[in-house]
Amino acid sequence: MKKPETTFLFFTGKGGVGKTSLACASAIALADSGKRVLLISTDPASNLTDVLECPVNDKIRRVAGTENLFALNIDPESAAEDYRNRVIQPLSSAASAEEINKIREDLSGACTTEIASFDEFSRFISGEQEDNKFDTVVFDTAPTGHTLRLLELPAAWSDFSGNNPAGASCLGPASALKSSRERYQTVVEKLRDASFSTFFIVARTDLPSLKEASRTSSELARLGMKNQSLYINGVFRALDRKDPLAVKMESMAEQQLHSMPDNLKNLPQKFFPLLPYNLLGIRKLRSLFDPALQQQISVEQTGRKDPENLNLPGISELCEELCRGKKNGLILTMGKGGVGKTIAASAIALTLAGKGFEVLLTTTDPAAHIRDFISQTGAIPPTLTIEQINPKEETQRYIEKIMEQKGQGKTKEEKKLIFEDLKSPCTEEVAVFNAFSKAIRQASRKFVVIDTAPTGHTLLLLDTAGSYHREILKNNPLAGKLRTPYMALQDSDVSRIILVTLPETTPVREAASLQEDLKRAGIRPWCWLINQSLSMVKGISDPLLKSRATAETAIIQEVNTRHSERAFGIPFLAEINLLPAVLHSNP
Predict the structure, then answer these.
(1) Neighbours of 283 (CB within 10 A)
(2) Which residue of the set 216, 424, 506, 533 is catalytic?
């Protein structure tokens, strides 16, 4: 890897494109070159432990198998608790126990978790993290929507705390932030300074990924973060020219790279091959920048035996079970970013609508591509309604509604204070949750299919639902007659949670972790859906594809035996118009 000239390296892009693998491999290469490197994940759904095959937590520790590499996970919940304690501690001698409890309760929402994660993140950019000096800090960032929001926070919090001295509940007392305003400004300046920060935008060779990379590049540039490079990961080259699937995959990749958005073509580019092995462990991660080692491991891993073909029931069978004896209900696709939640939600919604059911298809993911997929099918069934919960639009709508309600009878100055309070960044979370709740309520009369955001953001959204649920029950004398959105998510007769994953080790582990989190919240997933399975494709002869298909067998068996009583699959499909192919695929 060419030695970077900046101290801070950010790896960002659409979920599932390989940000973590490239961030880890880059950090290892830098450490091997003699630099003292810190690798940090700011992703609530971080999988550094899996990829490095070494424990990583919220304390800086050296990565086993390296000399100069250290790693850290910014744990959102731990950071939030520390933040609450920092806010409350100065008030403990002057405030009553009741007042302290009220402040702690105000700081219990998803917005506080995001603030706290940023507060930890900012310490490493501003130079206030004095323990362990590092030559380079590599950030494995969260999926694109969350990352852009994270990077916007410095300006947002600085502006808000400066213009709203009265504070807001999600921020705690404004006095707790004044000491950090200079830090926020330092962070903004360093992120925008090309001598300090480089942004590596990671993409795959498919158009949705490239479009997301284009959007990311434009958004970063808009924020003044223009020192960017493009990493194209998983570039496939057929080893067997007689394998029609392999040849088609290679042709599709070349075609879609040729259609790369113009703003990406102007960036420095580096390409990384699709390998016959998963990049797990230090040795395999080193191979990404070491062609000789890459070749050695590839020879060891490349399949020579025909893989075992698996026959998982497909989308058609899944939908038959979803609608058996039902005319309505709530269906949510959940999972790690990039596993195919959007294509799964779209296929399920179209199949149910094709059966004559009233269906609403919507998304809580700001980076979703539902309409791109739906447009591939031509005519849309008249019983299907498509919506998207747009965070910016929902926030504006929410602000207008609150101003109308709370502004009645108020003076111009009082209205100004209300408006300033609503400029808090947490307002967006509340607004999106309101739209989310509205969609859930429609499940009493139709099928509502929700394509959720990547895992970490989804858990924050569900935490908001849970907080709302607890607040309703505590303060409403008629609580016994109310049915909150959280109750709907917990009711297996109403809600069907579909965990979407890829047949690879890390996505399956993350889906299993999400399943446990949901169960602790009283929400039980209904089934697993394994997407892009090569082991469901017959007649593969390309050695690289055979190797990857063979590796899937044990992983899918693990899903069937350890994680779910009900598993479905979508075979790997080399198609530009993917949704029609999914709808007509027969495993």
Answers:
(1) 15
(2) 506
